[in-house]
Amino acid sequence: MRLPRHHRIVREFITKFRLKLNPFYNTNDNAWYLINNVRAKSGDVDRNPDILQYPLLPAERGKSASELYDQTLDKVTTDCRALKEKYDSFSIKEYLIKEGKLSRGAIDMIGDVLNLDSSFHLSFLYYLMDDIAFKDRFDEITGGFDQLPEAFYKSMHRDIRFQSTVVKILQDNEKVRVFYRRPLTRLLSSETADYVLVATTAKAVRLIKFSPPLSSKKTHALRSLRYSRDVKIFLACREKFWEKDGIYNGRSITDRPSRFIYYPGHNFTSGVGVILASYTWDDDAQFFVPLSDEKCVDLVQEDLAEIHQLPKTYIQNVCDKHVIKKWGLDKYAMGAYVSLTPYQLVDYSKALFQNEGRVYFAGEYTAHPHAWIETAMKAAMRAARSIHGAVSASPSGNRKS
After folding, report:
1. What total of structural domains would you count in the chain?
2. CATH number at residue 117
3. Which tens digits make up the pLDDT trace of 286-324?
């Protein structure tokens, strides 16, 4: 899990919990491109992007996908209000065509190399805010990202109800009562509080019955939000065949189903190499969702064989264990993160964060930029501040939430 350097909130907790970080590298000169039936080293493509044989205009030749995209941003103002007024209705592809004046070949290159092809229909403003993070350097937690939630768990002093599904939330002028179902029981348990903070995904909120019902604006916003259904396919390999190509860290990029392959920059004590054999977003990920695990693994093994020019039987033999995560099938999250379409940023942002009486809401979908851990933490802190403000403004002024 990569963490941008400028995400200060999550890094503050990492420091507090005395966790260590090491650099996360998105690129490696020895990794591969396999696009348009052209196989080339990443370093060679960086030096000469025309290797990939996209049909570009004379003024576009010799420029990387990032350079082509960045040159379209000259017209973008730093005035946030003006940005919203002008570009809230634009999709990413519409902006590149109408404002960026790029050729179709340049747009195809941006889509393939910058992982935007499956997201061209999304909001340009949404992507613009998210793109800022990718201009930064990244780190990862040394020894595994699971250490961060584990540290949070150990630091908490209140009871946590694992595998307990919230069914309904009832509130009046004085209290909020949360009803939930524990595993292997039909009877509902409940907790009563002065205030409640709901920190699920927007999709999961819709599984909860609220009394009184949520406002029509929030209900409509929750229903309309679009979620990406990202898919990650990991392979555990007895032999680190990618290291024979001099690949440590970084990623390979292909227009085949796997799309983006990430290589480890660290060693496991067992000697096994774990590779993220496919990381797909949006419509690219949807391709894998209906497939069986066996078919998913077969496809990414075939792609790895083509990218690294190795027999598929060899890849199948040395990479015989896998883990697949399909966020669209996660029964708790019901999706990976919000992927806004045109008009949704302006239409829904306020309603999504707005509290409903004594019930408050947090999560990456309630703040910007979406999808990041930092954003979820920022949203939770903002909601907590709002709750404390409500407590201070109440007649008693000393209630506990």
Report:
1. 3
2. 1.10.405.10
3. 999 999 999 999 999 999 999 999 999 999 999 999 999
pLDDT, position 79 = 72
Cα separation, 366 vs 346, in Å, equals 12
The answer on 207 and 69 residing in a single domain is no
How many CB atoms lie under 10 A from the CB of residue 354? 16
Q: List the 260-262 sheet strands across, edge first.
A: 38-41, 32-35, 251-254, 260-262, 273-280, 231-237, 321-326
Backbone angles phi, psi at 120, to 5 degrees: -60, -25
For residue 398, pLDDT beyond 70: no
pLDDT at 352: 96
Q: How far apart are CA 358 and CA 211, in angstroms?
A: 11
Using alpha carbons only, give the angle 88, 94, 100 rounded to the nearest 5 degrees.
Answer: 105
Task: Classify residue 4: in a domain, yes or no.
Answer: no
The Cα 314–Cα 295 span in angstroms is: 17
Q: Name 269's Cβ contacts closer than 8 Å, sequence gap at least 6.
A: none
Q: For residue 341, what is the DSSP state?
A: P
Residues 318-352: tens digit of each pLDDT: 999 999 999 999 999 999 999 999 999 999 999 99
- Contact predicate 165/181, CB 8 Å: yes
> Which residue has tokens 């960086």?
46
pTM recorded for the entire structure: 0.92
Mean pLDDT of 249-275: 89
Contact assessment for residue 31 and residue 252, using Cβ atoms and an 8 Å cutoff: yes
Residues 48 and 125 in one domain: yes
Domain range holding 291? 230-329
3-state SS of 119-188 is: HCCCEHHHHHHHHHHHCCCEEEECCCCCHHHHHHHHHCCCCCCCCCEEEEEEECCCCEEEEEECCCCCCE
* Domain contains 24: no
Residue 66 lies in a domain: yes
What is the distance between the alpha carbons of residues 369 and 312, in angstroms, rounded to a whole number? 40
Residue 151 CA from chain centroid, whole number: 22
Q: Yes or no: say if 273 and 236 are a contact pair by the CB < 8 Å rule.
A: yes
Q: What CA–CA distance (Å, rounded) separates 217 from 348?
A: 8
pLDDT digits (tens, 9 = 90+) for 82-134: 888 889 999 999 999 999 999 999 999 999 999 999 999 999 998 988 776 56
250 token code pair:
């970084």
